[in-house]
Specification:
- The protein has 2 domains: about 35-180, no CATH class; about 185-285, Serine Threonine Protein Phosphatase 5, Tetratricopeptide repeat, CATH 1.25.40.
- Helices cover about 40% and strands about 30% of the residues.
- The chain contains 7 helices and 10 strands.
- It has helices spanning about 1-25, 185-195, 200-210, 215-230, 235-245, 250-265, 270-285, and strands spanning about 35-45, 45-55, 80-85, 90, 95, 100-105, 110-115, 135-140, 145-155, 165-180.
- A hairpin with a 2-residue loop joins β1 and β2.
- α3 (about 200-210) packs parallel to α5 and α5 packs antiparallel against α6.
- The longest helix is centred in the first third of the chain and has 24 residues, at about 1-25.
Length: about 290
């Protein structure tokens, strides 16, 4: 009986011990203090992706204390910040090949160092970090903000067809730099290729691109004339008048604009009527 009682006590103790161990090892899921963020932005034909974690101020002094001046920083929290380019880009006049890089920074009071690093596997800065593995370094001036950014943000702003700004914002500090991507060469190559067996619509698109981007206007005029062959549309005539005006052929530009305006009136397009009237008035002043 005593042996049986001892065995029962031992079994109960083992059960309690196992349950305690399980409870001790259990982890409660809670939100990250510095939430993970991934942004992907199309810029021209390129695509830029930034992967980072976003710490918050929470009443602390950030730059110069939590993030010391003069020391390398992961540019965020937890894992080091990564930036990825689908195609080659240009930063500070240097071509950066497509691929993924770690984005480190060295904050200072009057100047920040921006670093694109070739190794992307280090946690934080990483004890194995070597400056010799940097792809590039360059300096930027910090900007003092008049409003507080509680949660750190990395954003792509001022996006055009071939460039954007990368902004790092936290507390009362902003740093930014420009990223450019090649568009013109790709478009020009496509135009040259498409010109080999083209439709009138392609001639029109190519002529407008040349006009709007300051290319060979005589070539643009040649193409717009091909777009107009047996196809006199008011919007195509409008572009021809603009090309002629840019070439300094003001009288011809006015005559074509009048024709565009009349066709637009016939088809009830008030917008093009007004556009042509405005241009005609301006060109008549030049003619004087």
């Amino acid at each position: 009986m005593k042996t049986m009682k001892k065995s029962l006590i031992l079994i109960i103790s083992l059960i309690n011990s196992t349950a305690f161990c399980k409870l001790s090892n259990a982890q409660i899921a809670t939100p990250r203090l510095s939430p993970h963020c991934v942004i992907t932005q199309e810029v021209g034909f390129n695509e830029i992706t930034i992967d980072y974690c976003r710490p918050s101020v929470k009443g602390r002094k950030i730059f110069g204390k939590l993030v010391p001046f003069g020391k390398i920083w992961r540019t965020g929290a937890n894992a080091s910040t990564k930036i990825k380019f689908k195609d080659d880009v240009i930063i500070e006049g240097k071509e950066v090949p497509a691929g993924e890089y770690t984005l480190y920074t060295i904050p200072d009071k009057d100047e920040w160092t921006i670093i694109l690093h070739n190794i992307t596997t280090y946690w934080g800065v990483g004890k194995d970090y070597k400056e010799s593995d940097d792809f590039m370094r360059f300096k930027v001036k910090p900007i003092q903000l008049n409003h507080k950014i509680e949660t750190m943000a990395i954003e792509l702003s001022n996006i055009s067809t071939d460039a954007c700004n990368l902004e790092i914002k936290w507390d009362y500090t902003l740093v930014k730099f420009k990223i450019s991507t090649e568009v013109d060469k790709k478009v020009m190559a496509e135009i040259d290729d498409k010109m080999k067996g083209v439709s009138q619509a392609t001639y029109y698109q190519a002529a407008v691109y040349y006009l709007e981007n300051g290319k060979d206007l005589n070539k643009a005029l040649e193409w717009i004339d091909k777009a107009l062959e047996n196809n006199e549309k008011f919007w195509i005539l409008r572009q021809k008048s603009l090309i002629l005006a840019k070439l300094g052929k003001i009288e011809e530009a006015i005559a074509i604009a009048e024709k565009s305006k009349n066709l637009a009136q016939e088809q009830g397009n008030d917008e093009y009527v007004k556009l042509n009237e405005k241009s005609i008035s301006e060109w008549k002043l030049i003619k004087r």
